């Protein structure tokens, strides 16, 4: 049966872990890391084609275009009023 008097407390465990981490030498980057990093940062960025035109990427133009499309997409007719069946409390004669 283990004796709990010898078990370290959580604070002692953290302190031991921190001592072990401080005792290790500091980490060093791999050879040529900074040379590759500098080369990558200074390399020209290839231009990618944009999927949308510049004017459409602005929200105001996109909203305006959406409003125009919704305005022109209808056929100009007004929908007839909904007639409820008599079982649901509606009249059997459609209103005019």
Features:
3 helices; mainly alpha; flat; 96 residues
What does this structure look like?
The protein is mainly alpha-helical and 96 residues long. It has three helices and no strands. The longest helix is centred in the N-terminal third of the chain and has 14 residues. It starts with 9 loop residues before the first helix and ends in a 24-residue tail after the last helix. 0% of the residues are buried.
Tally of alpha and pi helices? 3
Q: What is the total tally of β strands?
A: 0
The class by helix and strand makeup works out as: mainly alpha
| Cα radius of gyration in angstroms | 36 Å
Average pLDDT level: 80
Q: Spell out the helices and strands N to C.
A: HHH
Shape estimate: flat
Quaternary structure type: single chain
Strand content: under 5%
- pLDDT below 50 for ≥5 consecutive residues: which ranges? none
Tell me about the largest β-sheet. Answer: none
Helix proportion of residues, in percent? 25-40%
| Amino-to-carboxy terminus distance | 92 Å
Itemize the secondary structure elements and their pairings:
Layout (H helix, E strand, L loop, with lengths): L9 H14 L9 H10 L16 H14 L24
Short description:
The protein has 96 residues and is mostly helical.
């Amino acid at each position: 049966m283990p004796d709990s008097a010898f078990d370290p407390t959580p604070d002692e465990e953290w302190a031991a872990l921190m001592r072990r981490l401080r005792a290790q030498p500091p980490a060093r980057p791999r050879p040529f890391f900074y040379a590759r990093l500098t080369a990558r940062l200074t390399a020209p960025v290839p231009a990618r084609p944009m999927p949308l035109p510049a004017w459409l990427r602005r929200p105001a133009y996109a909203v305006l275009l959406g409003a125009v499309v919704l305005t022109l997409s209808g056929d100009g007719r007004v929908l007839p009023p909904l007639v409820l069946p008599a079982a649901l409390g509606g009249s059997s004669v459609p209103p005019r």
